[in-house]
Structures are given as structure tokens and as C-alpha cells.
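re the bet — no i am not wrong, look at it urself. input seq straight from the record:
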Amino acid sequence: MAIEVVVGDSASRLKSLRLSALKDAPYAFGAKYEDELLIEDTQWQERLKNTYWCFVVADGVDIGLLAVDKADKDRNSDCWLSSWWINEDFRGKEIPQLMLEWVVKLSKENQWQIIGLGVWPENLRARSAYKKLGFVEADKPLPSRSKPGQMYLGMYRQVK
């Protein structure tokens, strides 16, 4: 198992993995497979420029994805995680810890102290996984940017 930091020439690879994630777990994301399927290659390329991305690779196959952005002021954190997904065949292993180690290293390089992410309140499996990684839930849900009318739960972790 290895983490690969995504570079500028990986747009088609990013698109493929992101679409796999949305198809596998549509309940977990704010985006919809049908919408992201229509995104032009140039927009995927832009996503690579504006966000830190990593893939998890097992035996030459992409099995996981994670995006990290500098957080907006209203996120109550220094960086914000999104698109976190692991292929179902590989869940329940130590892969989330491996991905978090990459985020912590990136955070230290950027002098970020608080890592944040959002999760749908009903996604109990994800909430449990994030808690095992040291994330703490916010006191109350917040309005979603990607799904108007829906609330998400912020979860936060100190960089150590």
C-alpha cells in the first residue's frame, strides 16, 4: 500500500477515481456522479492545480482518494479534507491512518494546526472511522454548501 501525491498530468486518473467513489458511495458526498461525469478535462486539470490530492495505490491499482484544501475562514480549521474514499474491498484496514499521516505531514509543511472535514450526520460508519483517527465532532451541524437544505457535521483534529 502506498500514498501517491497527485501531480499535474493526472487529470484522467483523478476523474476515474472520483467517479468510482461517487458511484460506490453516493450517500457520502455532496457531489453527484451524473454531474461530475459531465465535467470537462480542463476542469479536472484545474482541480489538480488548486487542491492537494493523494491516491492510495495497492499492487498498482488506485484504491483510495483524498483532497486537502486550505480552509475558508468559516470552516473553523486551517485545512479542509474532502473526497475521502477507500474502495470497499480495502475498508476496515489501516488505510485511513496512512492517509491521515500524509495529511499531518502536509499540515506541518503548511503550518496548519487544525484539520477539519465534514460528514453527513447519518453516515455513522464514517463518523466512527474519523473518531478512531482522533477527530472530534462539532457541537452542532452546519448548513451544507453543496446540498442546500441539508446539514453536515464538522469534525476536527489537532495536528500533533
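see?? Residues 2-158 form a domain with the Aminopeptidase fold (CATH 3.40.630.30). told u. also The chain has one domain: 2-158. so pay up
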